[in-house]
């Protein structure tokens, strides 16, 4: 069975969510929730990265007052690595969340979500190689918030490129219409 696209009039397979020719949403509500959930997960990863970045900076500033100098020197490199991964996670997750929730650029959303996931993976691996680390703490504090959330968000968004195309085409059409209306109002009357 086939569905007729109300926008372009062409036929699309029955299981199509979007028209393969013009990217018009044939069943947009079923798919929009997944991209929004991916954007919200990126936002969660950004908040987690902000928290870890703040805590990592504090640890770097106060590590010598917490531990003897020899212990503090061995831990300093791990805190530096966690700070870098947390900052990079924040720097990539926040714009990825904004782009995903606004459906502005599929390519940049996917690049930023992937980089955020890699950053979270780096933080998680670093938390596992810290001396005296515990697997449960590593999973609860690093794996779940800064690695798994952007990974799941990336997986939810990745097959939804058509939703971004639909926004882009609609946005371009609105911009053209807006420019036409402005040019009509700016022309002097003869």
Summarize the amount of helix as a percent range.
Answer: over 70%
Could you name the ranges where pLDDT drops below 50 across 5 or more consecutive residues? none
Mean pLDDT: 83
Multimeric organization: single chain
The secondary-structure element order is EEHHHHH
Spatial gap, N to C terminus: 56 Å
**Principal-axes shape call:** elongated
Calculate Rg over CA atoms.
Answer: 23 Å
Output the strand order for the largest sheet: 1-2
Structural topology:
Elements: E1 2-4, E2 11-13, H1 28-66, H2 69-102, H3 106-129, H4 135-157, H5 161-186
Antiparallel strand pairs: 1-2
Describe, in plain words, how this protein is organized in 3D.
The model has no long low-confidence stretch (mean pLDDT 83). The protein has a domain of 125 residues. It has five helices and two strands, in the order E-E-H-H-H-H-H. Helix 1 runs antiparallel to helix 2, helix 1 packs antiparallel against helix 4 and helix 3 runs antiparallel to helix 4. It is mainly alpha-helical and 190 residues long. It is 77% helix and 3% strand. Strands 1-2 form a two-stranded antiparallel ribbon.
Quick overview of this protein structure:
The protein is mainly α.
Tags for this model:
5 helices; two-stranded antiparallel ribbon; 190 residues; mainly alpha
């Amino acid at each position: 069975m086939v569905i007729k696209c109300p926008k372009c009039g062409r036929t699309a397979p029955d299981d199509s969510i979007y028209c393969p020719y013009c990217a018009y949403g044939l069943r947009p509500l079923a798919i929009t929730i997944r991209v929004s959930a991916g954007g919200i997960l990126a936002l969660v990863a950004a908040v987690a990265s902000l928290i870890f970045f703040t805590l990592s900076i504090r640890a770097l500033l106060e590590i010598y007052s917490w531990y003897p100098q020899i212990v503090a020197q061995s831990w300093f490199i791990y805190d530096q690595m966690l700070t870098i991964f947390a900052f990079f996670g924040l720097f990539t997750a926040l714009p990825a969340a904004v782009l995903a929730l606004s459906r502005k650029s599929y390519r940049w959303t996917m690049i930023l979500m992937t980089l955020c996931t890699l950053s979270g993976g780096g933080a998680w691996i670093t938390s596992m190689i810290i001396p005296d680390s515990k697997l449960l703490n590593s999973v609860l504090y690093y794996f779940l918030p800064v690695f798994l959330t952007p990974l799941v968000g990336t997986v939810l968004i990745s097959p939804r490129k058509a939703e971004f195309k639909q926004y882009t085409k609609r946005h371009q059409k609105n911009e053209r219409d807006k420019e036409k209306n402005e040019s009509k109002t700016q022309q002097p009357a003869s």
